[in-house]
Write a structure and sequence with these properties.
Length: 211
């Protein structure tokens, strides 16, 4: 980076999860970024290296709760909190912040569709109207001025990048598309759930095959 070039001051909310840790690994080596705050409720007060040893020794701030962050010194927030918890958190953030949300909480423009698929009403419908669904290759002009970017997930990104140009060109009909996608157990995140344990998933699969 050239001397005097501006470094964007960044906070990562939910830095102790898998998504937050991978994002932190990428940003920690970015020469236009200064990471000024990392949050994690259960691990607040610890250095990030105590949670993820591969991130030790990078001169990163210790983990704190969201309430302890001084957002006046932050320009950009990456939100890596679990699905269903992000809407109210983002709605309470100061207006000057630009936000990239990596959960699914702002990806569906229609709040009724969100409620049907996620099992509860959208908790920030006014904010949803301002969100830009951020597949860069498809909406690049809109991203430049967006305050809130809903970062798309891996499945929709891999599906839409090849399919959207074909639909727009009239070469295929969107109603004829079937996407068959598979995930490993790590796709469920870091939280301990019985249905995500390898022993449970593998045993269920073996029983279904034998049956």
């Amino acid at each position: 980076m050239k001397s005097g070039e501006h470094r964007v001051k960044i906070a990562i909310l939910g830095a102790s999860g898998y998504t937050g840790a991978e994002l932190l690994r990428l940003l920690a080596s970015h020469d236009r970024v200064e990471i000024v705050a990392l949050t994690a409720d259960r691990h607040a007060g610890k250095p990030i290296g105590a949670v993820f040893p591969h991130l030790a020794g990078r001169f990163l701030p210790d983990l704190v709760t969201i309430d302890a962050v001084d957002f006046s010194s932050v320009e950009l927030v990456f939100c890596c909190l679990p699905h269903g918890t992000t809407q109210e958190v983002i709605a309470a953030l100061p207006d000057h912040l630009r936000i990239v949300d990596l959960s699914a909480d702002f990806r569906l423009a229609d709040v009724e569709t969100y409620a049907r698929w996620y099992g509860h009403p959208h908790r920030a419908p006014d904010l949803q109207r301002t969100a830009v669904y951020g597949i860069t290759e498809l909406v690049r002009p809109a991203l430049g001025n967006a305050r809130l970017v809903a970062n798309p997930g891996c499945y929709p990104t891999s599906a839409q990048l090849p399919l959207v140009p074909l639909v727009r060109a009239g070469l295929i009909d969107a109603d004829d598309i079937i996407i068959d996608a598979k995930s490993g157990v790590t796709g469920a995140g870091r939280e301990l759930k019985q249905t995500s344990l390898f022993a449970e998933v593998a045993a269920t699969r073996r029983r279904s095959i034998r049956g």
